[in-house]
Design goal:
Structural class of chain A: alpha+beta
Oligomer: heterodimer
CATH topology of chain B: Rossmann fold
Number of strands of chain A: 10
Radius of gyration of chain B: 13 Å
CATH architecture of chain B: 3-Layer(aba) Sandwich
Low-confidence stretches of chain B: none
Strand content of chain B: 15-25%
Largest interface: A-B, 28 and 21 residues
CATH class of chain B: Alpha Beta
CATH superfamily of chain B: Response regulator
Shape of chain B: globular
Strand order of the largest sheet of chain A: 5-7-8-10-9
Structural class of chain B: alpha/beta
Order of helices and strands of chain A: HEEHHEHHHEHEEHEEHHHEE
Low-confidence stretches of chain A: 1-5, 17-40
Number of helices of chain A: 11
Order of helices and strands of chain B: EHEHEHEHEH
Strand order of the largest sheet of chain B: 2-1-3-4-5
Chain lengths: 317, 130
């Protein structure tokens, strides 16, 4: 099991490279543990998006196998495959990787949780603080993985929407309350204005909540001073949800770019703000599926207003 | 002892984690590392509940659930899939194979016991408790 844990680590590291540098020739590895016997070791498949990187790995073959061997402390079979960018973005490939990444996260989140519950014994303040950081980061990583899984499902046309009666007013109230501790900590004003006629919808509740969550997370993340205002009104048979912030804003020519996955990284924003910039592209794609729209108005260094429209549908009687 | 739970899970750390939480909450835990061993163990110990990983060596979780459901003396034992398969339709697939519930990995230690006990209660409500 030691081997398995370590190979998970390597897999994780290499997969992170793919996540962080999707435009480059980052290698991805897929671990295939041989089914029979403990001595069979691991099979590591190195997949790269550029032929020359594959060649480079092959030229390193012996040294690389040796070092893998040492790390795993077991014999490892290493093979190489060239895959073009399209195939790397294959939803099935991403889904498999997301699944693989959840396994080590189960340990990280699980054991951190039971330590924090004090099930193992009392913690001192410093231990508690550090473990809470581990938990926050692990949950953040899990959210990123879920985003990647979502975007791959949507792009493959595999996302299935459900429908149920959903109270939009209550949902907005709830999400605003969820963000209050964070905005208070940053010294931001957080206000909500929901028109009296806003009520129920017959829609995929989880996806609407996800859109609201993404909009507020972005506003809270990119606003260091001032306020965030959430409003909801009705217009022409649609609900309009607006999230206005006084954050860093976006330059006019970059607004369209914001909806492209991973754009965040190319613009260097990830140096200051964690994340892949997947949230807005997920919102846009979800809204297309829900029959809605999303629009952004922004002024650089002044703030951003994101407006989402969702058609008002009620449960058929 | 509140009850006996069989955990079928091949990942050492995941098994340790689940066992730790269950034992700390007063349950007796039996373990199996692959699908076939899981079925044998279930027949032998007649657990009150089975926690079943889906990606297992020898025989996957779906096949284990289907097989367990063919055994009359185990037919009423709740089976809860605990899995990191998180694609649309995975939950339905687990239910169709005979599972009663589905817990997604990574498990949340703050609500895990609540999720497990909910299945145990459902069983007790059905009048099938020992």
């Amino acid at each position: 099991m030691q081997e398995k844990r370590r190979s998970n680590g390597i897999l994780f590291l290499i997969f992170l490279l793919v996540l962080l540098f999707p435009g480059f020739s980052a290698p991805a590895a897929e671990r295939k543990t041989l089914p029979e016997g403990k001595d069979a070791g691991s099979h590591i498949l190195i997949i790269t998006s550029q032929p020359y990187v594959t060649k480079w790995f092959i030229s390193l073959d012996h040294a690389f196998s040796e070092s893998i061997h040492k790390v795993l402390s077991a014999p490892a079979k290493v093979s190489y495959e060239y895959m073009d960018g399209k195939k790397l973005a294959d939803p099935r490939f991403l889904a498999t990787m997301s699944h693989e990444l959840r396994t080590p996260l189960n340990s990280i989140i699980g054991f951190t949780g039971i330590l924090l519950q004090g099930l193992v014994g009392p913690l001192n303040d410093e231990q508690r603080k550090q473990l809470q950081w581990v938990r926050t980061s692990a949950n953040h990583l899990l959210a990123l993985i879920s985003d990647i899984l979502d975007i791959s499902k949507i792009e493959a046309g595999k996302l299935q929407l459900s429908r149920e009666t959903f109270d939009l007013r209550a949902a907005i109230d709830k999400i605003v309350q969820t963000f209050r501790p964070l905005t208070e900590k940053k010294g931001l004003r957080l206000e909500a204005a929901i028109a009296p006629e806003v009520g129920e919808l017959y829609i995929d509740a989880r996806r609407v909540e996800q859109i609201n969550l993404n909009l507020l997370s972005n506003a809270a993340k990119f606003t260091d001073a001032g306020s965030i205002t959430v409003s909801c009104t009705t217009e022409d048979g649609k609900y309009l949800i607006r999230v206005a912030d006084t954050g860093i804003g976006v330059k006019k020519d970059q607004i369209d770019e914001m909806f492209k996955p991973f754009r965040h990284i190319d613009t260097g924003l990830s140096r200051k703000y964690e994340g892949t910039g997947l949230r807005l592209s997920i919102c846009k794609k979800l809204l297309e599926l829900l029959g809605g729209e999303i629009g952004v108005e922004s002024e650089w260094q002044r703030g951003t207003i994101v407006t989402v429209s969702i058609p008002v549908e009620r449960r058929p009687t | 002892m509140k009850g006996r739970i069989l955990v079928i899970e091949d990942n050492e750390q995941n098994l340790y984690l689940v066992k730790f939480i269950l034992e700390n909450n007063g349950y007796e835990v039996c373990e199996a590392r692959d699908g076939r061993e899981g079925i044998e163990m279930a027949e032998k110990i007649k657990p009150d509940l089975i926690l079943l990983d889906i990606q297992l060596p020898v025989m996957d979780g779906y096949a284990v659930a289907r097989t367990l459901r063919t055994k009359p003396d185990l037919a009423k034992v709740p089976i809860v899939a605990v899995t990191s398969y998180a694609m649309a339709g995975d939950r339905e697939k687990a239910i169709a194979a005979g599972c009663n519930g589905y817990i997604e990995k990574p498990i949340n230690p703050d609500i895990f016991m609540q999720q497990v006990e909910q299945q145990l209660c459902l069983r007790a409500d059905g009048g099938e408790g020992k």
